[in-house]
Amino acid sequence: MSLHVVMGFGPAGAATARLLVEEGHAVRVVTRSGRGAEPGIEHVALDATDGGRLAEAARGAAAIHHCAAPPYHRWAAEWPPLIASACRAAEETGAVLVMLGNLYGYGPVEGPLTEGLPLAATGTKGRVRAAGWEAARKLHDEGRIRAVEVRASDLFGPGVTDGGHLAGRVMPPLLRSAPVSVLGDPDAPHSWSYLPDVARTLVEVAGEERAWGRAWHAPTGPALSVREMVDRLAARAGTAPVAVRRVPSAVLGAASFFSPLIRELKEVRYQFDRPFVVDSSAYASEFAARATPLGEQVGATVDWWRERLAVPR
Questions:
Q1: In 148-248, where does DSSP find H-type helix?
Q2: Where are any strands of DSSP class E within the chain?
Q3: CA pair distance 38, 32, nearest whole angstrom
Q4: Does residue 30 sit in helix, strand or coil?
Q5: Looking at the whole model, is its pTM more than 0.70?
Q6: I need a surface site. Which of 6, 10, 244, 276 has the fewest CB within 10 A?
Q7: Is 99 strand, coil or helix?
């Protein structure tokens, strides 16, 4: 058994922490406000941008799992100090820095996304995420820390709520057999990362020295459009077929005046306006974690939302 520190307790941080407990590890979760007691998890309240205090919390840890995520519209200001703090803590403690990344850093590309693509994003959020990994990798290459990044596409599954494109905007109306409204082209192929698979990958790479020093795409199943995913979710839920409607650009434009989230989504609209397909074959060729079969993903997601919303079967 070893100690693992998890930064953040959103969907990814919570899933990772609980999986680590299942595997017999001691887990310390760091959040700004702290939380109540939970079996196997020690919750510590501290500002994760304070590298000295984070290092104290991570003393003796085998790994630091960076799953913290500032509010979407504050990434530019808050992401760099979080990365700097995590790197400092990794350097001072010797813990492996395991970063949860996304695909924004590539920017718009033609064809499937692979880890060999350059980090050529031109948008603010994409540049910030790319710079964070590049800073950690530089320290790794210099021998000052040990770091690895796991990049995931849009998360869905049990535990994913307001931030997921197949979550809060889709599941409540779907379970009522009501139409759902989505961003972008509902028929464009899109890769979805199932949250338990992402957590499993973050845990696995922490103990695999040959994974360190580079980024990996989390195991991800075949790309399916929003409409195809909604059809599968509705079929599993046993509801009537659900209409899928694209939110008109004019509506998004008007909403952006009032919603920081909608305003910030303009930078990554390309991910939903055309095919957005992840190639995770590199990871599959080297390590054990695999994408959960789609039927199991869909079933677990529907069951979790039914329980959350107390919707009868």
A1: 171-175, 195-206, 226-237
A2: 3-7, 26-31, 41-45, 63-66, 96-101, 147-151, 154-156, 180-182, 192-194, 215-217, 244-246
A3: 17
A4: strand
A5: yes
A6: 10
A7: strand
